[in-house]
């Protein structure tokens, strides 16, 4: 039966080529535009750390003075505490070992060269961090391994470099044990990372969420600070009279927040306990006079962090709204056209009904016709969406900083196909229903 | 022409009418908001720089010098002098940040009394420093005078812990003057840019000087001050070189990098580019969004137009007999044409009315969720006109076809 309906549909559609093409194109453009926008949104909103994001939390403390009324972050309200920690607080939280894992970090940039001077000095960004960083964020090693906790404590001059830097300095060979000179200080390579990129990144020093991956070296925090590698990025000092000191040793005692921290908490009970710990810690600091305000802490999971600091740019959200408004216009338009098309062929319906076809049979036949248009539109729409994403990726030179990330994955492809099918049925439903309402006698009479 | 027959004819096709009006309304709502969003992005794109950005190149270099040492100061002078000798270079300054750039942002507050300075509740500004900064950038003075070259102090001395030193004078921008001292002459006014220091006096007003980093609310992009501060070679200091001719920028950049390598074989160049590159990178996003929105509007109007063509054709075909009868009864071709045009105008108007309400609602949503400004009133008629024109153009072909229907069609089946 379905085959026969399909033949009927093709015959009917080919009678009105222009109208058919118009309907197919309308649906295709609508699907194409909305799928492009939705894919961009999906890429930006996806979980960057699947399997980990529910376990990683960002502790925040509020050391601000009572009188301080400046906003700490563009996206947050006046109550939002600093997103970074001072050296004293970060070290206290780190050494308390209250979480399953904990890592403190800061971004810096420094000159990179080899001791024999064989390569021209270059400049790299690196992350100064503690050893738990690697298992917490799942960094893969090609050669060697992370440094030890003892290295963190002693400030051993060791470094983990990325495959990119390893290719540049050592031609991709196993460089574990070799020396690289960072800002005039020798560091021993203990590990080389495999290609690894997770974006958006949530532990950078410049913004709460960063969209470019620039790190080429990972260095134990203590050794980096002691070797006078400068931390870069934003920082907040809560005492107006004490600006951020240029000297690294003074940074350790300064009332300035310039370090990021993430902790891993494996159960809900531990999360609650850690929150209590932060509150008690704040109370203690208030008691000894370091903090002024009553405890004001945050302990956001990765998901909450991405939400709070607008991982998805407003532009991308607005685009999704506009694109779906656009799809709606296209679908309603196609519905109108489909209605016109069916009404034009209403004589055939009348004949079929008079010859004994049930209302349901006519309805099914018309739906097949609508479905064919919808499927064709949906397929062309998918091709258009791929084209749209391809165009987006071509804007590489910094126009859109997430451009290289946008690809349609299997999940998005399935969603697209479902939306395309649903749209085509929606488009067909009303016209088919209207058309089969016709009473056969009346229709035949007007013929 | 009497509207009554048109209306009663329209009401016989309620479903089609409803769909068409809905499409026009949605289209109108989306188009007026999109055009507005587009102008917002274009405005940012065409924001006046207020300095000769197309003549400037920036270099960020890393040396192994101990910051603020005598050695560093001596080397700074040597380097700056060597850079000035490069053919095509008109001026050199070492600055803490670059306007419209996206790396660093050195903040300060304009507070009118010490209490506000303490609570940092003044206006957030970008604090620029550097010897010959204003001259190298080509800032334009609109009131007062330039900074006194004898009043320059070391940047590091101002910002070191416990320092009570503050530069005695400052340049501010027109926009900032209007914000802090509305309706008053800003010259001679005093402010605190950080607490625990004596006040600084405004001695000059420059037309524009944008902040770096593009993180600002609407109208805040020009909130900057220039203080008489001297910078020495250190991490995060930018060389800004002014070229005599914009076409020489690449040449000057290469020569400058070579000079830096010659003076210090250990120097590592962190970045080197014409200053306009940073702006292009930053504002390219605005351009991309504006292009996307323009494309959306055009496609949307096209789709709506094609929909009207399709439905009107159907209508014309359905009413062949009626049209034939009217022609037989003496209606001219123009009457028929006018009938369909007027009919389209009526239903577009209905859609536009709904569409304006929709545009208002959409704008309210965008305002609430994305901190966008309210849709200005003139975008409402703009959306209406766009849809009216689209509608009339779209109905033209079917209406012309209708007007060609012969009176004989009255008799045919």
From TrEMBL, chain A:
Location in or out of the cell: Cell membrane
One MF term in the entry's GO annotations: ATP binding
Pfam families: FtsX, MacB_PCD
Main location (coarse class): membrane
Keywords: ATP-binding, Cell membrane, Membrane, Nucleotide-binding, Transmembrane, Transmembrane helix
Bilayer-spanning residue ranges: 21-44, 320-340, 361-392, 412-433
Record-annotated ABC3 transporter permease C-terminal domain positions: 322-440
Highest taxon of the lineage: Bacteria
Domain MacB-like periplasmic core: 20-275
Membrane topology: Multi-pass membrane protein
PANTHER family in the cross-refs: ABC-TYPE MACROLIDE FAMILY EXPORT SYSTEM PERMEASE COMPONENT 2 (PTHR30572:SF18), MEMBRANE COMPONENT OF TRANSPORTER-RELATED (PTHR30572)
The protein, known as: ABC transporter ATP-binding protein
Gene: ybjZ_4
From TrEMBL, chain B:
Localization in the cell: Cell membrane
Domain annotation ABC3 transporter permease C-terminal: ranges: 298-406
TM annotation in the entry: 292-316, 345-370, 376-397
Protein origin, superkingdom: Bacteria
InterPro entries assigned: ABC3_permease_C, MacB_PCD, Macrolide_Exporter_MacB
Keyword field: Cell membrane, Membrane, Transmembrane, Transmembrane helix
PANTHER family: ABC TRANSPORTER PERMEASE YTRF, MEMBRANE COMPONENT OF TRANSPORTER-RELATED
Protein's name in the database: ABC transporter permease
Natural source organism: Dyella flagellata
């Amino acid at each position: 039966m379905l085959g026969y309906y399909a033949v009927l549909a093709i015959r009917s559609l080919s009678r009105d080529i222009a109208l058919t093409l118009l309907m197919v194109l309308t649906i295709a453009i609508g699907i194409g535009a909305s799928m492009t926008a939705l894919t961009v949104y999906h890429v930006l909103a996806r979980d960057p750390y699947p399997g980990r994001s529910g376990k990683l939390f960002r502790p925040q403390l509020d050391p601000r003075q009572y009188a301080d009324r400046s906003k700490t972050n563009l996206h947050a309200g006046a109550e939002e505490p600093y997103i970074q920690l001072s050296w004293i607080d970060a070290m206290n939280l780190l050494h308390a070992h209250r979480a399953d894992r904990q890592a403190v970090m800061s971004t810096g940039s420094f000159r990179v060269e080899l001791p024999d001077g064989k390569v021209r000095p270059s400049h790299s960004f690196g992350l100064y961090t503690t050893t738990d960083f690697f298992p917490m964020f799942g960094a893969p090693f090609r050669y060697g391994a992370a440094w030890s906790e003892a290295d963190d404590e002693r400030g051993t001059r060791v470094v983990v470099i990325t495959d990119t830097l390893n290719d540049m300095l050592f031609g991709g060979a196993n460089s574990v044990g070799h020396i690289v000179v960072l800002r005039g200080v020798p560091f021993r390579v203990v590990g080389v990372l495999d290609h690894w990129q997770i974006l958006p990144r949530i532990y950078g020093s410049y913004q709460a969420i960063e969209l470019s991956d620039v790190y080429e070296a990972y260095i134990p925090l203590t050794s980096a600070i002691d070797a006078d590698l400068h931390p870069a990025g934003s920082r907040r000092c809560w005492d107006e009279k004490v600006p951020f000191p240029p000297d690294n040793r003074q940074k350790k005692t300064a009332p300035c927040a310039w370090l990021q921290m993430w902790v891993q908490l494996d159960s809900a009970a531990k999360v609650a306990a850690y929150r209590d710990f932060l509150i008690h810690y704040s109370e203690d600091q208030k008691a000894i006079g370091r903090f002024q305000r009553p405890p004001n802490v945050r302990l956001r999971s990765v998901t909450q962090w991405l939400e709070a600091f607008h991982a998805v740019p407003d532009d991308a959200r607005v685009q999704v709204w506009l694109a779906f408004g656009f799809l709606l216009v296209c679908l309603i338009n196609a519905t109108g056209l489909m209605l016109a098309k069916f009404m034009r062929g209403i004589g055939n319906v009348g004949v079929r009904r008079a010859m004994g076809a049930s209302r349901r049979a006519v309805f099914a036949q018309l739906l097949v016709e609508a479905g064919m248009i919808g499927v064709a539109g949906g397929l062309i729409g998918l091709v258009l969406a791929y084209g749209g994403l391809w165009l987006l990726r071509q804007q590489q030179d910094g126009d859109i900083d997430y451009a290289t990330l946008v690809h349609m994955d299997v999940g998005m492809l399935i969603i697209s196909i479902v939306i395309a099918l649903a749209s085509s049925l929606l488009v067909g439903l009303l016209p088919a229903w209207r058309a089969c309402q016709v009473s056969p006698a009346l229709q035949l009479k007007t013929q | 022409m009497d509207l009554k027959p048109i209306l009663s004819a329209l009401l016989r096709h309620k479903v089609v009418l409803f769909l068409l009006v809905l499409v026009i309304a949605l289209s109108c709502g989306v188009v007026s908001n999109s055009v507005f969003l587009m102008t917002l992005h274009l405005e940012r794109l065409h924001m006046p720089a207020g300095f000769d950005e197309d003549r400037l190149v920036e270099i960020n270099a890393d040396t192994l010098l101990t910051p603020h040492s005598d050695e560093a100061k001596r080397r700074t002078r040597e380097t700056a002098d060597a850079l000035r000798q490069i053919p095509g270079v008109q001026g050199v300054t070492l600055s803490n940040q670059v306007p419209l750039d996206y790396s660093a942002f050195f903040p300060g507050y304009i507070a009118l009394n010490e209490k506000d300075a303490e609570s940092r509740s003044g206006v957030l500004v970008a604090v620029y420093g550097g010897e010959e900064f204003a001259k190298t950038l080509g800032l334009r003075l609109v009131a007062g005078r330039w900074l006194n070259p004898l009043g320059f102090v070391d940047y590091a001395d101002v910002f070191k812990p416990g320092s009570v030193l503050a530069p005695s004078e400052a340049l501010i921008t027109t926009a900032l003057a209007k914000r802090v001292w509305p309706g008053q002459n800003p010259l001679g006014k005093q402010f605190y840019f950080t607490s625990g220091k004596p006040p600084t006096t405004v001695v000059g007003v420059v037309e524009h000087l944008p902040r770096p980093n593009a993180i600002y609310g609407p109208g805040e992009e020009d909130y900057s001050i220039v203080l008489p501060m001297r910078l020495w070679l250190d991490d995060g200091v930018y060389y800004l070189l002014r070229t005599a001719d914009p076409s020489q920028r690449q040449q000057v950049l290469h020569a400058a990098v070579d000079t830096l390598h010659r003076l210090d074989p250990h120097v590592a160049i962190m970045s080197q580019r014409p200053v306009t590159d940073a702006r292009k990178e930053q504002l390219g996003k605005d351009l991309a969004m504006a292009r996307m929105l323009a494309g959306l509007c055009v496609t949307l109007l096209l789709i709506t137009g094609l929909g009207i063509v399709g439905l009107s054709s159907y209508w014309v075909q359905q009413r062949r007999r009626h049209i034939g009868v009217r022609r037989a009864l003496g209606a001219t071709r123009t009457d028929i044409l006018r009938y369909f045009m007027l009919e389209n105008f009526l239903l577009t108007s209905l859609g536009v009315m709904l569409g304006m309400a929709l545009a208002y609602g959409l704008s309210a949503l965008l305002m609430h969720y994305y901190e966008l400004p309210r849709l200005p009133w003139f975008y409402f008629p703009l959306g209406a006109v766009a849809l009216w024109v689209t509608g009339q153009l779209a109905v033209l072909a079917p209406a012309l076809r209708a007007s060609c229907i012969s009176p004989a069609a009255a008799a045919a089946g």
